[in-house]
Amino acid sequence: MERRQNGGRRCQIVQEFVKNITDDTERLVCYLFMNNYTDREVCKQLKIKPDRLNAIKLKLAFDMKKVGIRNLED
5, 39, 55, 74: least surrounded by Cβ within 10 Å? Predict the structure, then answer.
């Protein structure tokens, strides 16, 4: 049986997660991705290298999993 998070609850969890990010770069990465920027565009906007972006994305992925945010395809 497939189990999915309630859409409204998921939105609330994600908003709370983003609100509690203390690192400005991490918060901006989230904001840009939520607004459909590509990896390349994020790097250009924040003036960071792809390796740095990948490290931020990995950290955010682990942090999101810790608070219970799952990928909808899971």
Answer: 74
